[in-house]
Design a protein that fits this description.
single chain, mainly alpha, 2 helices, 110 residues
Length: 110
Amino acid sequence: MPKNTGSFIFGLTFGALCGVVMALLLTPQSGEETRELLGKKTDDLKRGAEDAVERARESTAGFVERGRSIAEDAQTRLHGLHATEQPEPEPLPEPQPEPQPERAESQVQV
């Protein structure tokens, strides 16, 4: 669920509640009619909040399922890359002994 969705739902609910309260205060009705109207509006608001929560759950479940699918796909690809045959590296050439400088006979003592 996006970061601002919770704030939006709170603002929407708060605004609806303020609208209901203002409508009740400004409407000339008897107390019984006002209580009836208040009960109906409260039920409507409750149903609306439940619907919003259910929609949020469904969208979250969709995101979670999509994330799992992506993770499984990535894991399958990773295993596929690991399982493919890699060409054998070419062997390193054998080290050659360094040529020894020849000694001049004058340097050799017998």
